[in-house]
Amino acid sequence: MKFRLMKINIMSVPPLKFWLILFLISFISACEKGSNKTSDQIIPVTQYPAPEINESTPQRIRDLTEIIYALERYKLDNRQYPISSNGYDGLYTDHGVASEQWIKGLVPKYLEKLPSDPRRTDSGNHQYIYRSNGANYKLITLNPNDCEQVKKLFPTLIDPLRDCWAYGFWTKNAALW
Fold it and tell me: Is 132 helix (H, G, I), strand (E, B) or coil?
């Protein structure tokens, strides 16, 4: 809602009108501040909408979707996404910092545990990886063996920079990272 500011001479406003104006300003301000705090209304701010999840959804997409919802809850509380190292962090990674807490700050408040790629390998090129500067993020799975299937079902999840070497979620300004 946008309002036009008007100059008002306080001395010329009758007391009853003054309190009514003050009440309305406070009420509108409270409504705007509280409108995006409801956790039931969290919508991930990825470049494309998160897919609807069901039993037939590939495990990697279910895992990554769980993480993006946690990222949005984190951002509501902290006004930014968790910041990664200068590269792509993951449980195992050749592209950043490897750690069990590869997205700092999500566990245990927003997730019980960070998911790991279903292949359960320690190869740094077959993992979920995350990169963020606080304002934007990219969360992808590297070299997934189900990429062609995902490309048919959810083409918007295919990484525009890596084609079928990776898919996942990202904010608009992180698409080409």
Answer: strand
